[in-house]
Amino acid sequence: MKLLVIRFSSIGDVTQALSIPSFIKSYHPDAEIHFVTRADMAGLATYHPNIKKLWLLDRKKGFKGLLELIKSLNSEGYTHIYDAHNNLRSLLIRTLVKADHKLVRPMMRFKRFLLINFQINKFEKPFSGQRDLIKPLEAWNMKFKLPETPQLFLDSPLQKKTLVPFQDYVVIVPSASYELKRWPIDYWNRLIKENSDKTFVVLAGPGDSFTEVLNENKNAFNLTGKTDLSNSAAIIEKASLVISNDTGLLHFAEQLGRPAIALMGPAPFGFPSRPKTLILERQLKCRPCSKHGQGPCRNPNFQECLRSITVEEVSGHMRRILESAG
What are the backbone angles phi and psi of residue 83, rounded to the nearest 5°? Predict the structure, then answer.
């Protein structure tokens, strides 16, 4: 078996898709697995021991770059192609690259329409991002099971590098792609203030200036905009706990086997899949309100799905998890 896995984005989905090569290897130890993703996601998959070759799509090269990639892939002689993305680019790859066996992850658009517009849930419960990526492979007689962590692998020099000047810390991720998916910043601020005996490391992107309010806390080490994906993963790998909105770094924690608290708001997909992740959510009639959490909020109590998750509740779970870890 020589197999190509396709998953271009996003950060969270690519991170969860890193379980696919190990899953396939558990059934076919001699399989040669290649993985194609976007160039800006390369750091997530470069050191995966079960990926023999990593192929990168550079969006800056446009359609010409995609055709060049397809030409190169066609010279590999794949026996199997698994399209774990299912978009136009991946359609072109799985159509134009030769292989005897081809499989595509179903989008289940009608189920998604029912869920988002009428709150009629025909999906398997509970939601699981990794299950949805891996289970289609049952068509090739590989029964679903979740590979053991870690499934996100870092290079050794980065693991040894001291990126944070202390050892016992909690990572918080107050960012998310859409504002409706963010636990309010004043809640994060209170969480830090009311747990002054704990050290918090803040991870967020360069565009997340709203986290500046957290700088007033002496027990907060704010790295907003100062880390790339690999740096963030290395910091999370050494964290005692990760508390995160529904965003990609949450899946770093679960794929690294770190305990996490997930604050799940308006979006229905991409839920964490591992037992070390505690999912906090509210069962409201309006949830989910959109595919990615882009809104608009349809609840008269704006953003109730996240605002009703209290600082006291998160703080209590945080302390319980830290105490149980010793």
Answer: -90, 100
